[in-house]
Structure formats: structure tokens, C-alpha cells
Design a protein that fits this description.
By secondary structure, the protein is of the alpha/beta class. Helices cover 51% and strands 10% of the residues.
Length: 499
């Protein structure tokens, strides 16, 4: 996996390295097939074998080639895991079927046709039924989840996989949006299902009446989520923190609809309400620490209570707080205005495109890191510096594939020197935000690692060396905090055992 993806998943989304290795991979150009792997991962529907989708030579028609041309720039892929619909008919020790479906995060995302200036961040296979993410889980994390749920799993159950055990033993589940957040919460020790979108936990069949009107039927659970809707199971929702009123209402509607369907099946439904300002559960864990999320999960509100709270907040808003309704035409005009660049910006864009070609590999790496870090903290539309750097970011995104290729060819020792200081800063910040328990675990992990023999080409070696170096520079502070580790660990275990 490319280093930039590893940093995104493991360090910036708090995903355990073992879960990252099992579920995420870099897609590359396939020399044998003569095309990028991304094409086969996304466009596998049988409909693409039909004559309407291909010309006489067997090549895809221009419409599809143009729509998915960005796939040649690659990205990372996450598979959706096993198909729970096969659980009921499995024989002892038999493994469930695995789905082809998944998601691609492209290096060079394509623009949304109906929303100028917006891009499709994640791609899912077209022309096929959508799925849900049931990610692969390593044995040591699975054991942690079984223990917390108080269940004993047989060797036969384990042979059928983690999600089969979750289904069979009514283990509590958390539902979130997206593969990354599901992976992050699994890393925390929560059996978590990832939905590709907030409304994909349920379906409404559409029919056409005699007069041509489209009629929506009653909602029903997604066919892959339905097997987990078993009497007595506990299911928590943990969707993103939002400030935009329209988005908040969409989340409330999605949780209410899916939650009500689960409740009717006998499930105990509750909601983990992220307090912000961090957007997703993974962001919250990175910023506030694992213990903070455990406490938040422990305080999850039952669905009826949460719905009452949402209703009370809705009716308590003053007229001034309510956003002005805009027509579809006004919304389109605003998006087009945002996407339209001024003459000065266009001139700056052309100038920077030329300058980018003159940068050395080292300077290019520094610039790429600086831009990424800047926009994590700055998004002020009126700030002239932000406006200028937004133009720089646009050029970097346009040429992302070429930049990644250039950095890959960069001398390893030079690249390491460019990235090391940035990585050390991130690790130091991560340690500062850790709970005493997490810090104690990290100290134990690092000490244990260097006590064991390891190969020089071990992918963990460089990472562990950097962490050890940072910890040595913070030695006195760490010793002081780890002294309270045992007491805090006991408190955390008490919280976890209750659930």
C-alpha cells in the first residue's frame, strides 16, 4: 500500500494496521490485462458484456470510457466483505460467500454532473445492486469483541468467520457510514457495519402507475442488513456530526426510518450523538482518543428519546436561525458561481502549472504535505492566502497521478528525510491526545516489538523507530502519565464489561 494511503487510514482515521492490511489495497496498472485494475474492480456488471455497452471490437462505448477515464489514475480499494444472506444455509465450519462489490477512492475524482465544483469522493460499482461493508477482522480484535459481548464461540463458528459469529450470537452492532469509519470503530472493538450512504440501510420499491406516476412503496430493510435484525440484539447508529440544517434533517430521517424497521424486528436501537467539531467517528477518535468514544458510546440515547430531542430542537429554533429556502435555480447559480474562476485566478493557475514542472522532487513533496496540512485547519473563504492556495491545490489534484508517480521514483532516503519531520510532529500530537491507557498500551507495544527479532525489511520497522524516537524525546512526560495507567485501565475495563 502506498505510504500516502497508509497515513490516511492508520494515522488519520485510527484504523488498526491489521484491519487496514486485510481490507484496503492500492490499485495499479495491470500489465497482463493491459489496463488499470480499477476498471475490473468497478465495471464488473454483466450489463457491460451486452452489445449496448460495447462496440464490435469489444471495447466499451465512448460514454463509459469518458465517464470513467479517471480510473487510469488509480486509488485505493476496499472490498465489502462477506454476504450475510448465505449465513442461514452454511454447514458447520463452512465459509460464507464473498462479494465483488466495494468502493474506490480515486486519486483523481470526477466532477459531479449536477453539482459544478463538487467531486465524487468515493466510487461504487455501477449497474449493480448496492451492498454494505462487513469488513474482515483479525482474530485478536475478534476475540476482544467476543469477550466484551460475553459470548463463547466454537471452533466451527470461528471457521465460518467473524460476521457469522456476530450474526449467530446476537453480538451488539454499530452502524456508521463508509468503509473508513467502519474500520476505525472495528479497531476500537465494536462490531461495525458500514453503509455506503445514510439512506442505504433501507429500500423502497418503485412502481409506475397507469398514468405514468412513480409510486414509492413501503420501506424495508436492506437485504444484507435484514439478517442482523434479530430479537434482543442491540444496534447503535453513529453517523457524522453536521451543522447544516438540511443535512441534519436528512440524517434524522435516515436514522428514524432504518431504526424503526429494526425496532419492529425486536432490536434495541440507540444513537451515538457525536458532539463535534470533528465530523466523523474516526475524526473524533483521532482528536479525542478511544476512551472519549467509549464514554460517548456508553451514553447512547435510545431511539425514542433521541427522536424527541431532535423534535424539541427543531421546534425551539427561532425564525432567524432557520435558513432561507432557495429555489433549484438559485442553488445552481450559487454552485456555478463557486466553480467559476476569476481572470486573476485563471492566470495564476496557468502560471503555477508551469512552475510545478520546475520543482525538484523534494520541493514537490514538501509542497504536497504543506497544502494537505493547511487545509485541515483553514477553510476561510475570504482569506486571500486560502484563495491562492486553493488554486495551488487544484493544480496538484489535476496532476495527482503524475505527482504520485514522481514521488515514487524519488530517492527513498530523500523522501524519508522530507516526510520524517512531518511524521514525527503527527506522532507527537497523537501521543499528546492519547489517554493514559492508550499511551500505556503504546509503550508496551513498542518495547515488546524491539525485544523480538525482526527482519530489516519488516514494514513496521521504520514506523516503530520513528515512534520510539519521539517517545524518547518526551520521556519524562510519558513516565509521569504512564504511572496512572493501571488505575485508568481498570476504569476503562469496567465501562467496557458493562457492554
Amino acid at each position: 500500500m502506498q505510504e500516502v494511503y497508509w497515513l490516511e487510514l492508520v494515522e488519520e482515521s485510527a484504523i488498526h494496521p491489521d484491519i487496514a492490511k486485510l481490507n484496503f489495497k492500492t490499485l495499479q496498472y495491470d500489465i497482463a490485462e493491459g489496463q488499470h485494475e480499477a476498471w475490473g474492480h468497478l465495471l464488473y456488471s454483466e450489463k457491460f458484456d451486452e452489445k449496448t455497452h460495447r462496440i464490435n471490437t469489444g471495447v466499451l462505448v465512448k460514454k463509459w470510457l469518458d465517464t470513467y477515464a479517471h480510473l487510469d489514475h488509480g486509488g485505493w480499494w476496499c472490498g465489502a466483505g462477506v454476504d450475510p444472506r448465505s449465513f442461514l444455509h452454511l454447514k458447520a465450519g463452512q465459509q460464507p460467500s464473498t462479494k465483488l462489490w466495494g468502493c474506490l477512492k480515486p486519486n483523481n475524482p470526477r466532477a459531479k454532473a449536477d453539482k459544478p465544483g463538487k467531486f465524487i469522493k468515493y466510487e461504487h460499482p455501477p449497474q449493480v445492486e448496492g451492498s454494505i461493508f462487513l469488513l474482515d477482522v483479525p482474530e485478536h480484535i475478534a476475540d476482544k469483541i467476543y469477550k466484551k459481548a460475553g459470548v463463547e464461540t466454537s471452533a466451527s463458528d470461528r471457521a465460518s468467520g467473524f460476521w457469522y459469529c456476530v450474526w449467530k450470537h446476537n453480538i451488539p452492532i454499530t452502524i456508521t457510514e463508509g468503509a473508513k469509519k467502519a474500520a476505525s470503530l472495528l479497531s476500537q472493538g465494536h462490531a461495525t457495519i458500514g453503509l455506503p450512504g445514510i439512506t442505504t440501510g433501507y429500500r423502497r420499491e418503485k412502481t409506475v402507475s397507469e398514468d405514468g406516476t412513480i409510486v414509492k412503496g413501503d420501506a424495508h430493510l436492506h437485504q444484507e442488513l435484514a439478517p442482523f435484525a434479530t430479537k434482543g440484539r442491540s444496534i447503535k447508529f453513529c453517523f457524522d456530526y453536521e451543522t447544516k440544517l438540511e443535512t441534519k434533517q436528512n440524517i434524522e430521517s435516515a436514522i428514524s426510518t432504518t431504526g424503526e424497521l429494526l425496532h419492529k424486528a425486536g432490536v434495541s436501537v440507540s444513537v451515538v450523538d457525536l458532539p463535534g467539531p470533528e465530523k466523523g467517528a474516526d475524526d473524533f477518535i483521532v482528536a479525542q482518543g478511544g476512551l472519549a468514544y467509549e464514554k460517548l458510546s456508553d451514553q447512547a440515547m435510545r431511539l425514542p428519546e433521541w427522536r424527541r430531542l431532535c423534535r424539541d430542537m427543531k421546534y425551539s429554533r427561532t425564525q432567524e436561525e432557520l435558513p432561507k429556502r432557495v429555489t433549484p435555480q438559485e442553488r445552481q447559480q450559487r454552485l456555478e458561481a463557486k466553480a467559476t474562476m476569476s481572470p486573476n485566478a485563471i492566470a495564476m493557475l496557468e502560471k503555477f502549472r508551469k512552475q510545478l514542472k520546475l520543482l525538484s522532487d523534494e520541493d514537490l513533496a514538501k509542497l504536497d504535505l504543506y497544502i494537505a496540512d493547511y487545509f485541515k485547519e483553514h477553510e476561510n473563504e475570504d482569506d486571500p492566502q486560502t484563495q491562492g492556495l486553493r488554486v495551488v491545490r487544484k493544480v496538484l489534484r489535476e496532476q495527482q497521478a503524475e505527482i504520485l508517480e514522481k514521488l515514487e521514483k524519488h530517492k527513498p532516503e530523500d523522501k524519508k528525510e522530507v516526510l520524517s519531520s512531518q511524521t514525527e510532529i503527527k506522532i507527537a500530537e497523537m501521543i499528546e491526545k492519547m489517554t493514559n491507557e492508550e499511551l500505556g498500551d503504546l509503550v508496551f507495544e513498542v518495547m515488546s516489538y524491539f525485544k523480538k527479532p525482526h527482519e530489516e525489511n519488516d514494514p513496521q520497522l521504520e514506523r516503530m523507530k520513528v515512534i520510539r524516537g519521539v517517545m524518547k524525546s518526551m520521556k519524562s512526560k510519558i513516565i509521569e502519565r504512564v504511572a496512572d495507567y493501571k488505575e485508568e485501565l481498570e476504569q476503562v475495563e469496567q465501562i467496557r464489561l458493562r457492554h
